[in-house]
Amino acid sequence: MDEYASESDSDYTSYWRDWFISSRGNEYFCEIDEDYLTDRFNLTGLNTEVQYYQYALDLVTDVFDLDCDDDMRETIESSARHLYGLVHARYIVTTRGLTKMLDKYKKAEFGKCPRVNCHSHPLLPMGLSDIPNLKPVKLYCARCEDLYNPKSSRHASIDGAYFGTSFHNIIFQVYPALIPSKSIERYIPRVYGFKVHAAAALVRWQDLKRDDMRRRLRKLEIESGFREEQMDDEEEEEEDDVEFEGVDGANTNTNMRLIEGPM
Amino acid sequence: MSTSSGTPESWISSFCALPGHEYFAEVSEEFIEDDFNLTGLQTQVAMYKEALEMILDVEPEDDEDEDEDEEDEDENESGEDADRTGMRHGAERRHHSRMASDLSVIESSAEMLYGLIHQRFICSRVGIQQMSEKYEFGHFGCCPRTHCEQARTLPVGLSDIPGEDTVKLFCPSCLDVYVPPNSRFQTVDGAFFGRTFGALFLLTFPEYDLTKRGADVLSSTNSKVPEDESILNGMFAKNIAPGLGGGHIYEPKIYGFKVSERARSGPRMQWLRDRPEVITELDEARLYHEQNPDSDEEEDESMANGRALVRRRPPGNARLRQRPNHSGSPMALSANGAESEL
Ligand SMILES: [Zn+2]
Ligand SMILES: [Zn+2]
Hints:
- The structure holds 2 protein chains of 2 kinds.
- Chain A is mainly α.
- Chain A is 38% helix and 7% strand.
- In chain A, strands 1-2-3 form a 3-stranded antiparallel β-sheet, with no helix packed on it.
- Chain B has 2 domains: 10-60 and 100-122, protein kinase ck2 holoenzyme, chain C, domain 1; 129-294, N-terminal domain of TfIIb (Single Sheet).
- In chain B, strand 2 (168-171) and strand 3 form a beta hairpin.
- Chain B has a 3-stranded antiparallel β-sheet, with helices on one face. In chain B, strands 4-5 form a two-stranded antiparallel ribbon.
- Chain B starts with 10 loop residues before the first helix and ends in a 38-residue tail after the last helix.
- The interface between A and B is large, with 77 and 87 residues.
- One zinc ion is lined by residues 113, 115, 118, 121, 141, 143-144, 146 of chain A.
């Protein structure tokens, strides 16, 4: 594509899109190229999804010239935003779209993972559904591979379908070098230094699940991607064997050295 | 707090009303006045005595005094200070020796001291009770993790030593810790909440139903686990990380197809959010006995080793709780953590 041409004419013509992506609350969106928007093939099927489709498209591409009242104008305006979102979901999985989103990701424009052990790893926006009007946008952390709610209500109300269910996974397939190293670091609830038994038992169980996975991957000679590759048997044995319990159980196992409170 | 009509706001309540201090409980004066609760803090803060006086809004008790009509405007760093009668008198009395710079040292010492007392207070019976009310009111916010469905969190520290890290939020539903959403909390010292409070809260109030969301948590009848619920590893089984496990784990997909574990970008962290489908799989005791049928009761020796001082019956079960008749018995811990050598 002719980079120079699209760059220079966007200076003049991307009036609506400039306004849209710079509006408060729209920080997650990147700017869709004019070329992409004007290629009808990319918009296949959207005409039935968007009210006043043609007017909306005209607005998005700055060729709107209908003389209409404010109500109509507002309706078309909101159709244009919806259309932009739906095209956005398709655009961000194209080569150019991925690069634009990658830039934003590198600048952490989608926020940072709130999980303490992810150490502010940048997030990516995602949808839990590709069908519009079902689920609001969520944020994906590639480090803990989990989803988080946007902090601000302006973002929390954006339709997740404008980002889709695939983009945030495709980006790591296309750019495998971006896959963050995984970490086994985790929070262990403690009371005066001692673990809580119920939580500790769950952690042990989860550790076994992780070991199983790593064994499976090793057998297949696939890199597991953990930073602490030395972790195999390290199982940081702790000074504290005592574990606290909250309520009395019928549990009489002392092998685990529980603290119990039988009545 | 005993703010009777006309009495100016106490130092403690104005401290707790500052932006970013929403997580703090108001430590009772009784708690602070009990020297036992302050053991060891003298050496941790500068101008300890003055700081303590500031927290308690009391006049310094030193040398009886001469003329007191003089006002010292230097002390009024903020409008509120004028209302702190105790402070003002103290300042007047020593105003030749105590400069404004001293005052700001005392102010910051008082905040440090309050924080350290707070760390102990919220692990005491009265304090944890007050925190439970704040929890019920939702003062601590909720888990940012989507699959935790707005489970309520608890403020915790990752260290008990001040200056190391800021306050975090512990989610009982996924047993993980998060950075508070608002940056105003990112200046609050985590040590003022401490490492123990979050877990102690779960042990102290095991009957909070952690699976409840939204309006259900507000009605006390719905938000409590019925007493006949099954218990596992010292917790009501349904309360063990209810935000984890099947249906609460993100499955990466591309155009509807799961990303395989075998892919370089495949899932590697699902264990972190996993929980056995049959929760009794976590009953290590039962599993152990099933696998070692003849190993019955002779394990007691293993308990006596090292620091594992095991009590058959935790002392003072009811100390931390308000409902001593409940079948649950949290680990008893003396109000100030004096048993921490345990
Ligand atoms: Zn993360
Ligand atoms: Zn959670």
